Amino acid sequence: MKHKSIYAILLSTALLASCKKSFIDRPALDATTLQNYYNTKEEVRSLTSTLYGLPWSGYENRAMDAIGDVMAGNEYTGGNDDPPFLNFSFASTSVRIADAWKVFYKIGGWTSAYIQALEQKKAEGGDASFIDPAIAECHFLRGTVYFYIGRIWGPAPIVTDPGAVALAGNFNIPRYFKEDVLRFALEELQMAEAGLPETDEPGRVTRYAAKGMMAKLYLYNKDYENAKIKAGEVISSGHYSLFPDYAAMFNSSANNNNVESLFSIQHQLTSNPWGSGNQKNPDRGPSNMQTSEASMWELYAPSMDIQAAYESGDLRRKGSMMQHGWTKPEWKPVNSNPVYNAFMANGYVYDTIQPVGEGGQKNTTRANIAKYVVGPGKSYGGETVLGMNTGINTMMLRYADVLLIYAEAVLGTQASTSDAGALDAFNKVRTRAGLLPKTSITMDDVLHERRVEFAFEGDYWFDIQRQGFAKAKQIIEAQNRGTFDFEQHVTFSEQYMYLPIPAGEILQDPELAKEPVSYY
Fold it and tell me: Where is the composition biased (Polar residues) (predicted)?
């Protein structure tokens, strides 16, 4: 994506209106803005570019890990805010839950305000040739965040006119049934599909991104026929393929917006990178890789259970995790200890035997996450890192997902399938991983493949959840959620299938504590 367009933020939309509720957050878009701006394609695309980066940071940074992978048993964690997701003791006062809520309703509010402003601009004579695709972008992003909202909270508010709510001062907004939230998300994605172009500059969502997200939503709803149709349309388009080097997608920003990415959160390093930079590097990177340029504090680490999940010879293991013997010759971290420097002289080595402080690495699970770790900084053989911040994008929907959605949709409710199309899609993913193809697949095969393919990408919890409580309980209680030294198992109850509404929101809007109502 061209940086000048995707990261440009118009002054008129940078200031946020002050609203009582986080779920009616909206940017200030007044009549002066409509008269003076959005007269050119560049101005309109600058408006929608604001939706691809900064607004996602509160979810992407930590809440995504806590919800998508810690809760799912893929990550082990410490600190104060995340362990409740490991042992299912989280409460409505959780910082991670509040952060995720704010992000999704902020994006929902911004997209709603943008849609209204652009529709008004078009009604006043604005050029539909570039306004309509921008409106469709907003529908894609609004549909996507409501898909997350429905999966994370189940019943939840739907707000399409945050400005009117703010002006009216009536903040008693109810929760709507989960089915209605997901229906709303689907309708938004359908409008996006109808209005987005088939191709665009790298990083911008297209009609096929909408089709892919619709396929994922259909699969979540167990609408296998429509999931198959939409995934099949993406596959047959020929616009996407699997990136040949699995690991390289996640360790270098040089591969941003690659041929596998349908939708990514966009990042850019600037002189002041807060919000524009990706902050997964320090939360995942090993402490023995810290340098004067790159912070590393390894808040999240691979669980013992996910380490045991990979088949022998699976190339995704090295692309996803650092374990004893993992190397990256081009990364050459240096510190003040000559023993350490000698150990790392030929490139970074992940070693659990070498003494800590002299190049050794020994955390609670004896492993670190490799995805979205871009290294120790430019002076040390890597790319530019500014403390916590890197420039790598976070992929939210990949072509590998579309392939596995197609395979699962063909399988549907059958015990197994040997369908040629399903096997072709499924085995493409396995072949890239260096594994032998399968001649038939079951649901357990699909879930296993999805787990290792998308490990540490914030997705596995939703795969567990959509199996229903009984199967989710079976999966979770079988997991080893402990450390290298102490195996640990948890008891899972149905109340944790969805997250609670943040306590602060209920205090301001008691309707959120009541039973959900119908939206349609």
Answer: 270-280
Token digits for 46? 């600058």
CB within 8 Å of 12: residues ≥ 6 apart: 28, 29, 30, 32, 33, 36, 37
Q: List all residues 6 or more positions away from 88 whose beta carbon is below 8 Å from its beta carbon.
A: 71, 490, 491, 492, 493, 496
- Distance of alpha carbon 257 from alpha carbon 157, whole angstroms: 33
Distance between CA atoms of 411 and 420, rounded to whole angstroms?
Answer: 11
pTM here is: 0.94
- Tell me the residue type at 1: M
Q: Which of 316, 321, 318, 327 shows the shortest CA–CA distance to 365?
A: 321
How many residues are there in the chain? 520
Beta bridge partners of 176: 156, 517
Q: How far apart are CA 253 and CA 234, in angstroms?
A: 25
Q: Are 146 and 184 in contact (CB under 8 A)?
A: yes
Tell me how far apart the alpha carbons of residues 220 and 203 are, in angstroms, rounded to a whole number. 25
Q: Where in the chain is the domain with CATH 1.25.40.390?
A: 3-196+503-513
Residue type at position 174: P
What token pair was written down for 129? 């040739």
Instruction: Say which CATH class 3-196+503-513 falls into.
Output: mainly alpha
